[in-house]
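Input chain follows. Return C-alpha cells only.
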Amino acid sequence: MGPEPSEAVPRPGLPRTAIVLLTLACATVIAFGLAAMRGIVAPVFLAFVLTLCVHPLRRWLQGRGVPRGIATGSTIAAVFALLAGFGAVLVASLAQFSALLPQYAPQMAELGASIARLLESVGFGPEQAQAALEAFTPGAIIGFLGGLLGSITSLVGGLVVILTMLILMAVDGSRVPALLTHLQLHRPAVVAAFTGFGAGVRRYMIATTVLGVAQGLLNWLVLVILQVPGALLWGLLSFICSYIPNIGYFIAIVPPLFFGFLSGGWPTLFAVFVIYGGINGVVQSIIQPKYVGNAVALSETLTFVSVLLWAVILGPVGAILAVPLTLLFRTILLDSDPSISWWRPLTGDTKDLEALLKQEDDAIRARRTRRGPASRGQDSPPAA
C-alpha cells in the first residue's frame, strides 16, 4: 500500500519573506482598526489598567476574610474616588485657565504682533504674519485645547465607557484567580505571561504615579515662588505628562514658559527654564528611567517609539498608555510562546544578557589594566 497523499506530496511552507510581509500587513490592518475605534479602545483599556492596579486591594481584603461582594464594591469605590478627585482638580484647573487667559490678552496681542513683525522682516508674507498674530489670542488657544481634548460629547461618552467598564471588570475580576488556576492546567506559559504583565503594569503605574506626584508638587511650588500664573494647572499638567515617557517634559514646560514670559518677561522665563527644567530633567531623565525601566524592562528606544506610535493610533490617551499597551503586545506576541521568548532581549529585557554584559565589562577592565603599565613604561624616562 502506498503512502498517504499528505506524506507522498510534501507541502512546502510559506517563504520567510512572505511571512514577514503577511505579519506587517496584519499589523497595519490592526493599527488602522484600533485607530478607527479609538473612542472605544482607549477608554476600555484605561479602565482595564485601573482595574488591574486596584486588584491587589481586592486580594488583600479577601485574604482577610472579607466577602467577595464587599471586596468587589471596595475596589470599585476606590477607583471611582481616584477618578472623582482627579476630575475635580482637572475641572478647577481648567476653570482657572479659562479665567486666566483674558487677563493677559494685551500681552498676548503684543507678543503676537512682535512675532508677526519678525516674520515679515525675514521675508514671510502678510498672510503668514497675520496667521501668527491671530494664533496669540485667548479664543485661538482655547480652541486649540478643545481640539486636543475633544468635544463634550466625546468626553462624556468616554467617561461613561470608563465607569461602566470599571464596574463590569471589577465584577469579572473576582473570578480571575479561579480562571488562572484553570488555565494553568492547559496553558501554563500563557498564565505566567499574563501574570507577569499584570505585575509589570502595576509596578510601572505605581512608580510613575509616585514620581509624577513628587514632580507635580515640586513644579507647583517653584512656579508659586516665581509667581507664574496658573501654577496649580501647570503642576497638574506636569503630573499627567509624567506618564508620557521621554517627551512629556517638553510638553509640560511650554505653558509655564509662555505665561512666565507674559507675567515677568525674560528673567522669569529664564528662571522657569532653569529651575523647572532642572527638576523635570532630573526626574524624567535620571530617576524615572532607572526605576520605571527596571519595572517594565523596555528599552529607551522602544519606549520612545511606542509613545509616538500609540499617540498616532489612539490620540493623547494612547501616549499616556503607551507603556502598558506595549507590554500587552509583548505579552501576547512573545511571552506567551516560550519558543520565541528569546526575542525578549530585543525589547530591552537584559536579564538573559547579564552574563554576556559582565564578560564584556570584564574584558574592558582587563584591557584597561594591561594598557596602564604599558603606558607608564612608555612615559618613564630611559635609564641612565
